[in-house]
Structure formats: C-alpha cells, structure tokens
TrEMBL record:
Region feature (Phosphopantothenoylcysteine decarboxylase): 1-196
Name of protein: Coenzyme A biosynthesis bifunctional protein CoaBC
Keyword Zinc: no
Span list, region Phosphopantothenate--cysteine ligase: 197-429
Organism field: Arthrobacter jiangjiafuii
Lineage: Bacteria, Bacillati, Actinomycetota, Actinomycetes, Micrococcales
Pathway: Cofactor biosynthesis; coenzyme A biosynthesis; CoA from (R)-pantothenate: step 3/5; Cofactor biosynthesis; coenzyme A biosynthesis; CoA from (R)-pantothenate: step 2/5
EC number: 4.1.1.36, 6.3.2.5
Family statement drawn from the similarity comment of this UniProt entry: In the N-terminal section; belongs to the HFCD (homo-oligomeric flavin containing Cys decarboxylase) superfamily.
Domain of life: Bacteria
Amino acid sequence: MRIVLGVGGGIAAYKSASLLRLFTEAGHNVSVIPTEASTRFVGVATWEALSGNPVSSSVFDEVEKVNHVRLGHEADLIVVAPATADLLARAAAGQANDLLTNTLLMARGPVFFAPAMHTEMWNHAATRANVETLRSRGAIVMEPAVGRLTGTDSGAGRLPEPEAIFAAAMAAAQDTGAAGSAAARPAGAGSLLGKTVTVTAGGTREPLDPVRFLGNRSSGKQGAALARAALDAGAHVRFIAAHMDIPAPDGVELTRVETALELRDAVHRAAPGSDVLIMAAAVADFRPDTNSDTKIKKRDDGTDPVITLVRNPDILAEAVQRRTEAAAGGGAARPVLIVGFAAETGDGSADVLDYGRQKLVRKGCDLLVLNRVGTSLVFGQDTTEVTLLSPQDSESVPAPTYAGTKMEIAHRIVARVAQELDAAVVPVR
C-alpha cells in the first residue's frame, strides 16, 4: 500500500518516526511530507533514512514530477501525525500553501488525522469546528490521548501512541478497501458524528476474600475494538472497563470498575446521556453472598468452606427497562439504541442461535451480538465470528453472520448501529 505520512510542526513529531517504522515494517511504501516547521523537531535526513524515499515540504522540489498532484493521487492512505491545531485549520479551510496541504486537497483515498496540541487548543471552539468540518467531509480525526503534555501540564491533547495510530489507520484503510479488503464499511467516517456511545468491556471480578475472586476469560479486546470503531466514526465514547488484558483505547472517557455492581452503577450514570449503549462486558451472573475481610484458609479438620452464590442484577435488562419507564413518563427514550452481547455454547436442549434469539426477547434490547464460545474460541483471541440478531429478523431477512478480526467485526457492528440510528428503526418497549 502507498502511504503518505504528513508530519505537523509539534514536539510530538518524534513519535512519528516510530509510526513510520511500523508502516514500513508492515511492507508499505511510505512517502513522508513534513511541514517546514516540523523539520525543526525532526530533520529531513531522518525521514529519508527511515522511509527510503526522498523527502520535501516544498511544491517547488522535483517540479517535473508534479509532486503536489501526484502524491495525493497515488496515495492509498494519507496519515497526518501529529496534526497540530494550525494544520487542522489549514486543512479544513482548504489551503494549499505547502506540499502537505496540496496533497490533502488531491487525496483520492482515506485521510486520517492524529491530533496533538495543548488541551486549551484542542477544546477551543475554532479547533472543534475544524474537526467537525473535516469529519463531515469524510476524513477520520482520531481523538487525542489524555496525559502528560509539554511542560508540567496534563490533559487531552497528547498524541496517541504510534501503535494505536497504526492500528486505527490500518483499520480505516481496510474498511475503505485501500488495503485490499473485500468489504467496504457500510457507514463511513463521521457516521456517528455528534453522538455519544457508551461501551462496556472486559470481565467483572467478584471478590471472595482479599486475594481471591470469581472471574471469567474475557480479555476486553472486542470492547476495546468497538470503542475504537466508534471513535473512528466520530462519536464521543464513554468506556466502562472491567478487568482487561489490554490497555483502554486512547481518546475515550474512561471509567474503571471491578464488580458487576460497580459496572451497574457506572452504566446507570452514563446511559441516560448516551445515544448508544453497547454492553460488550462479560458480567458475572453470580457473586459470593459474603466477602471475607481476611484470606480464607484451609481448615485443620479437613472440611471445605461452603461458598453461597447470589444472583447479580441483569444490567442489560435494567437499562432497557429504565429507557421504557423514561419514555412512559414523557421523557426522552435514552439511550436511543441498546446493543447486548451473548456468549453461548449450546447444549442438548438448544443450539447457540436458539439461545441467542431467546436472550434477545428476554432482554428486550435492539440488537444482540451472538458469539459461540468455548476453549480457544472468542475469549482472548484476535478473531471472532458473530451473528447480529434483531427483532426484525425473519426467514426472508435472516440475521447476518460475520467473521474476521475483532477490529473488522467492531466496524461491522458500529456500521449497523449508525444505520439503525439513521433509520430510526428503534422500538421502545
């Protein structure tokens, strides 16, 4: 794949050297276009050495090759990292005062911005308007990370780590067909612009004593992928994370929880202000009725402790019920769309699809993502297969089944969510 890597004039430009290495090691041909200001942070020689291609920021270099037209036309993907406030403003205004902005105007493939700037700059009304303009035109603008900035300040505006930018950019390229993917994303960048999406992820842990707990095999990978896909689609993402084997995605509003009861409280706080609730967390059905303050020890008499389990609340069903009650009381039915997950194994009584359909009816959610789980299936894996159930499924319009990486599946689910919101086919029960 032919990639143009645009580098803006910010201190975070040094991170783009690692991003360039990720692209080239994945086998892509990368042309780096730094702004003139960025070369004060990282020199042209570095970009040429790492990319193996000549580097310029001027439209007057190699005029015979018409670079200001050719580079944008030939690029399968353009990634700008860091995208400073100034660069976002120039791109949104359609300026063409250097080689990079010329190339952006000539782009035929997907364009991906990874912003980096001080928090006040990111939150300024002018920057927010520029971001919305770019997204409305189909560009993908990643949310910046939250953390230490230049100097002693911390906040939103930090450039996401190169690995996160690489993964999100590759997903964007695949979903638009730039990386050879057979299926394009049905709903593109900006399809959830202005929407708030709450995603739960990971597995809850129910404590037995200070060192032991009841848990499950959930890694949080699918929930994290859904959060990244929603960010790619332009949404503000509230991410409620139980135990996860991987870091939470950059750019989300993060809430950490451990138990099912803590997750329940977090969902009930976030859901009324959300357009979409996606319940991807693996929530324990039961918890110990007591939590010992001290470690449970083996008994000298050889008897075993008896652990009594009590049922945890059904958070998904409660969210649906609260929405129904709000609508009945004359309030807004929020969230507009509720998506549940079902991890099923099937048995002698029914198969996985039967159990999924029963759960869809029992929970009352608008969409249900059905997984077949088991040893070496789904939990902790990078690939998955899901069936997306809805109350509108019928023999003539059966539920679709998708297989692929969890990132690919996440984009499929987010695309369906965007379609449901646009069509307003959301029954309130």
